[in-house]
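---------- Forwarded message ----------

FYI, see the SLC13 family permease record below. Original note from H. follows.
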Amino acid sequence: MALDQILFLLILAGGLYLFVSERVRIDVSAMLILLALVVTGVLDSDQALSGFASEPAIIVAAVFVISGGLAATGITEHIGQWIGRAAGKSEARAIAVTMPAVAAMASFTHHVMVTAMMLPILTRFAKANGLSASRLLMPMSFAASLGTTLTLVSAPAFLLADNLLERSGSGGLDIFSITPIGIALVVFGLAYMLLARWMLPKRSGKDGGDEYLRLDRYRTELLVVKDSRWNTRPLGDLQKALGDRFRLVAWLRDDKRRSDLGKDNPLLSGDVLVVEASAEALASFHDDPGIVLAPVARFGGRGDDKESQLVQAVIGPGSEFIGRSIRELEYSRQVDAVIAGLWRRDGEIAPRLSDARLREGDLLVLWGKPGDFADLAAHHGFLMLVPFAGEAKRRVRAPLALAILGATIAAVVTGWLSAPMAFLAGAVAMVALRCVEIGQAYRSIDVRVYVMIAGVIPLGIAMEQSGTAKLLADGLLPLVHDWPALPILLVMFTAAALLTQILSDSATTVLLGPIAVALADSLGMPAVPFVVCTALGAVVAFLTPIGHHGNLLILGPGQYRFADFLRIGAPLTILLAFVCAWMTRWLWLGGPLLPFGG
């Protein structure tokens, strides 16, 4: 064994210890491995830093920004709400609708973001229909992971596999090269979950449903402005635009409450709507030229002052504001800001916001300039002054965001731009055309994932360059030399499926990918099916909750136990292993359509 191989194996062992023990963050572990490879001379500095400018790292960062743009314009939220409405009232129908839809969403966005978005939607759906949340959340989370196999760009593992194949001279993959496999995995995954749903645990889940809904419903008033784009359009259109967490309390026309108006009636300029809306909807109104917060319009202009912002103030115990109405505070000028909304934990609120009498613990949403809040922060009547939780949804730019996503995909498919340049252009367009603010775009990027990918790519290069990959493949070759292709593919899938339970899918692909290439070369077979099957094993293995971040998100809300994932995920993983091996053999090795044929 050469010195480079010994040094590499020692660094690899140390890296695996750091990854598994999580004594430091995974991105920091990746950087420590990178530095160790340079210090020991296994790689030079150019090779070590190549990951930061690599195609996988660029695409992953761009996909995060594009996902942020889709979320900021309300597209992902609307799709999630549509799924909730289409799911009907039965458990089987909910699974049958949710899984394919979630998989489709995850094919071009980050699957953890999709899981996080669908979690409260399905939790509320389950409670409203008397279903168990735990029987819906696991199928949804599995579907989000399966959806990443529909395209090359959603899971970093496939981008790393493509990068490895290009370096090895085997040719890269197109954006839809793995789509037939992904479709088969989603179909078989859906069929399995429908047939085996009796094994899903039946627990209510810790959804915090009432608190979630109540905290996210602020009482406020909206004014339909002159020449509004909502003028003469039915109320139902506005309700759809603002999402499910929008409830009409009262409709005022000519300062008179109209009980005869409903969602099918047209809005008119000057109408005032008393509503309960989510934090995001409340923060979005100033970005919509057709509708504004009525208190802001009444006291603070149209609300389009770029310096003004929303903050939240909590009425403290013994506050002089307790028992006084919002109207009294506004006209006495004791609060040097516009009271734009109110949240109350318990109890009724007056029909008009200005008539509401304040109680201890009430949360006021204030509109004003930062300089005006300095005195308010120190006012003894307020317990605290905190930033507003909601981020504005740029819903009017939703069609533009969809067009950018479509143009990005078209540029890649037609070959007009390479995948990294197309997705980078899409990310820049999202920011330049104001679908997402630059600060929000940067926050959308999971820096840990980007740094980890940039750090583990040199690890794969070192495994190839030091000859360690060939050494390990030569050790495996005598065992599988006379085997048909299908069981060898199953071996690579299984190795990745087991290793990904302690490592990320990216690290697993980087470590086992070079071995798959070397093994394929020794067998005289193309490397593509072996590398793809390895990456698939790293992505769609559901043996434990720690193998996928999305599963960790649902662990608490669904009240799942470790054994639940093993009981349900192990048979599913075995089924998917055969599907992956069958499909890769059929696509790239000319094998028969039936798994054991020929």
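H. also flagged this: The radius of gyration is 27 Å.
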